[in-house]
Amino acid sequence: MTEWRENIITFARKHRDSVYINGPDRNRVALTFDDGPDNVNTPVIIDSLKKYGVKGSFFFVGEMAKIYPGVVRHAFDNGNLVLNHSYKHDNLTQKTNHQIQADLNQTDKIIEDIIGKKPALMRSPYGDTDEKVVAAATETGHKIVLWSIDTLDWSQRESDNIVHNVIDNIRNGDIILMHSTSRTNETAKAVPIMIEELQKRNYDIVDLETLLNVQAYQ
Ligand SMILES: [Zn+2]
């Protein structure tokens, strides 16, 4: 287990109602997609989710959402959650409380202008979180949702590897981290196969609102 993982488990335990790394021990898991939207792979992923009747959770970056509002709306209109992944993917632990709040508010505003709803869930870039980030997230109405399986899809992995990494490690309540950017076409390829393999193993694929029993929007 990586040092980040060990630390975050302890940290999440300490902040039980404001920081989540997985859901309860039942046969439900969530697919989450960070860093988008883009106008190629994000739409392909949205269409795959739709084809299988599965809802995903997208943590979009504010400045990307501003560039591709149509893709944000498309994700939302198809029943997926549209959530906050900061304005331009800065490491929030390097900012002051005031700067973190400004960053999250700015991103909420961009999303709200597009879908009419303000996210109540955020994921800190790189999963970097500390007391200050939790305080600022809470003050701006957000719970922090991290993950329990990293597909490492950003590191030029092939779709087979992405799928296997998930299927070989899946447990009840897992939150699966993937990315939906212009570089993650292997993720877009992996999603339908992953959904089929998870469903074969009787996992219900749900959004984070359902997995964690929390509100996605403020
Ligand atoms: Zn990210």
UniProtKB/TrEMBL annotation:
<protein>
    <submittedName>
        <fullName>Polysaccharide deacetylase family protein</fullName>
    </submittedName>
</protein>
<dbReference type="InterPro" id="IPR002509">
    <property type="entry name" value="NODB_dom"/>
</dbReference>
<dbReference type="Pfam" id="PF01522">
    <property type="entry name" value="Polysacc_deac_1"/>
</dbReference>
<dbReference type="InterPro" id="IPR011330">
    <property type="entry name" value="Glyco_hydro/deAcase_b/a-brl"/>
</dbReference>
<feature type="domain" description="NodB homology">
    <location>
        <begin position="27"/>
        <end position="206"/>
    </location>
</feature>
<keyword id="KW-0378">Hydrolase</keyword>
<dbReference type="InterPro" id="IPR050248">
    <property type="entry name" value="Polysacc_deacetylase_ArnD"/>
</dbReference>
<keyword id="KW-0479">Metal-binding</keyword>
